[in-house]
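Please decode residue identities from the backbone states below.
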């Protein structure tokens, strides 16, 4: 017997956002979930299957577009996210916008009634072309495109990830202390979030009240805090001595993370992103930055994230 619960198809189901959406929707027992992945045998995919997700292989090859449409078949709604695609060189185009359009077109062709897309601000437009942050701007352009399609749509915008500090910008030990090179000025308060626990509740809220959120763009935030506060909280929770070091400028970033050397496009994008956040604010002034905490009061603060994960400052992939 086929369940009468609406089917939601999650693209990028193995990502942090995708895993959060899949788990939350399944736990609500109000939706079925089809999780799209390139590897249904992975441990992450199998974990989602044990929770009740339907796994489906998906190919993005140009000659497999019909398979992508089939992957979205029978969906009431879809959650779409596109990965930040590293630019090959300075000012090089990426194919993220084209990918986003391909996914949205396939979902509409398959008959989906609602698209929820993980977007970001259009840095190119906001900075009048002065700053280059393709993984922000490309997502904004995808959002603009989705709005032209004959489908109900809503959008979330994720804050900086807490997990980035462990995965991409990990602290290093120096004597008896940990050095935290952070890509923001020490006292600049920015929005941060745990994507593994915050994305799902936001998407569930939208799907449960789709008419209320039709056409809206909604920030998902754990809390606003500065690198100084992050380091002080880390020391208080873990008992480990830690100090802040700036990785805000290009020179500072490369000093602390020499592995970025030779990746000019990536370095330009990172420094463009942080300059944008400091100069213009991560979100535009019209965004409701309190929304996600209203609908999900248990959204993790940085302190709660540290307690919840037990992170001790080691390089770690979540």
């Amino acid at each position: 017997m086929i369940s009468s619960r609406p089917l939601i198809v999650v693209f990028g189901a193995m990502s942090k956002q995708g895993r959060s959406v899949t788990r939350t929707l399944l736990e609500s027992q109000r939706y079925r979930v089809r999780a799209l992945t390139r590897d249904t045998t992975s441990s992450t995919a199998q974990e989602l299957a044990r929770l009740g997700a339907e796994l489906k292989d998906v190919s993005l090859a140009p000659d497999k577009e019909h398979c992508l449409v089939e992957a979205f078949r029978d969906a009431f709604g879809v959650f779409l996210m596109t990965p930040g695609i590293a630019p090959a060189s300075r000012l090089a185009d990426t194919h993220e916008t084209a990918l986003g359009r391909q996914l949205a077109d396939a979902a509409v062709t398959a008959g989906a009634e609602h698209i929820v897309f993980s977007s970001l601000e259009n840095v190119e437009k906001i900075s009048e072309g002065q700053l280059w942050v393709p993984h922000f701007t490309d997502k904004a352009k995808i959002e603009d495109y989705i709005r032209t399609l004959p489908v109900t749509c809503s959008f979330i915008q994720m804050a900086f990830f807490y997990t980035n500090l462990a995965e991409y910008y990990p602290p290093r030990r120096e004597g008896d202390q940990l050095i935290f090179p952070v890509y923001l000025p020490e006292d600049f308060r920015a929005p941060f979030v745990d994507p593994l626990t915050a994305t799902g509740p936001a998407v569930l809220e939208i799907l449960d009240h789709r008419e209320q959120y039709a056409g809206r763009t909604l920030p998902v935030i754990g809390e606003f805090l500065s690198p100084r506060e992050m380091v002080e909280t880390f020391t208080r929770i873990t008992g480990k001595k830690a100090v802040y070091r700036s990785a805000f400028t290009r020179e500072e970033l490369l000093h602390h993370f020499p592995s970025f050397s030779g990746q000019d496009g990536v370095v330009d994008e990172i420094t463009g992103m942080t300059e944008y956040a400091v100069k213009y604010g991560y979100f535009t002034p019209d965004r409701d930055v309190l929304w996600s905490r209203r609908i999900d009061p248990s959204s993790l603060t940085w302190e709660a994230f540290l307690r919840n994960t037990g992170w001790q400052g080691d390089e770690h992939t979540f």
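Observation: Residues 7-309 form a domain with the Rossmann fold fold (CATH 3.40.50.720).
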